[in-house]
Amino acid sequence: MTARNSQPAKQSAAKGSKRANGQRRPAAAKARSRPGLAPLRIASEAAEQLQALTGRESEGVTGMERTEDGWSVQVEVLELRRVPTTTDMLALYEVHTDPRGELQGYRRLRRYSRGASDDE
Asked: Cα–chain-centroid distance for residue 36?
């Protein structure tokens, strides 16, 4: 085998990260070894996982905080579309994830119409 034939193997190894001993490790292994994801990614994944489970469109993330076991993310969800849209029914869900963003549980905190103020 010539040095020319070994080039593709070296290039594919370069896509991973270097270990302490100078060897490369695949990018997928690097992602699995990270203790947690960035808050933006956690929030996005929590909203996506909630939408996949409920089948309802998420309006957005309204809050999040780090917990002992991972993250608590509040997601506003469109539960019932109405005309006019100011009468749509929304719900606020609390989603719990582990530090890697994997869903651990969720619950609906409250349900309200889009046009309702927080005082109602």
From this structure: 11
- 95 touches 103 (CB < 8 A): yes
Q: How many residues does the chain have?
A: 120
Peptide bond into 39 cis (omega under 30): no
pLDDT means per 10 residues, the chain with 120 residues, are 44 46 50 67 96 96 96 97 94 96 96 81
Amino acid at 64: M
Yes or no: say if 113 and 89 are a contact pair by the CB < 8 Å rule.
yes
pTM strictly above 0.90: no
Helices (H), 14-94: 27-33, 39-54
Q: Spell out the domain ranges in the chain.
A: 7-33, 39-113
